Amino acid sequence: MNLSEEKTAMSDVTRIDTAGVQLRREAGSIDHFWNVLTDEYFTGEMIPGSRRVRVTEVVRRVRELGLDEGEVIVVYCSGPDCPQSTDAARKLADLGFENVLDYDGGLTAWKEEGHLVEATSAAGA
């Protein structure tokens, strides 16, 4: 865990900030990078390099993909007021995943830091 990653006292979820996401992306140390917004809140914006895995489908998708519990998974949603990434991180932790990072700043923080997003019309993962 580095300065841009912080385990919260209230939960077992480790949060990561924008700088941490950037550092991990540049280092290639993210195995899976997921936008976990449900269809109700998904606006078609994605952080480049991420894929869509709805929070409601996390358990099913993990089983389908046959992921290893040691893989690094970063989850994000729309921003700090959105609980969906924390919900997804908790589901993954409950499944035994040890390297789950909740980018709770999400799309809002990403854009505020001047990073580009991709527009997609795809509603599915």
Q: Find the count of extended strands (DSSP E, 2+ residues).
A: 8
Largest sheet: 6 strands, mixed
Number of helices: 4
Give the overall pLDDT as a whole number.
90
- Helix fraction, binned, reads 25-40%
What class, by secondary structure content?
Answer: alpha/beta
Give the C-level CATH assignment: Alpha Beta
How much strand content do the residues show?
Answer: 15-25%
Order of strands, widest sheet: 1-2-7-6-3-5
Description:
There is one protein chain. This protein is α/β, with parallel strands linked by helices and 125 residues long. It has one domain (12-119): Oxidized Rhodanese, domain 1 (3-Layer(aba) Sandwich). It is 29% helix and 21% strand. The chain has four helices and eight strands, in the order ββαβββαβαβαβ. The chain has helices at residues 18-27, 58-65, 84-94, 106-112; strands at residues 5-7, 14-16, 32-35, 45-46, 51-52, 72-76, 99-103, 118-119. The strands form two sheets. Strands 1-2-7-6-3-5 form a six-stranded mixed β-sheet. Strands 4-8 form a two-stranded antiparallel sheet. The longest helix is centred in the C-terminal third of the chain and has 11 residues, at 84-94. The chain is globular and about 35 Å long. The relative contact order is 0.24. The mean pLDDT is 90.
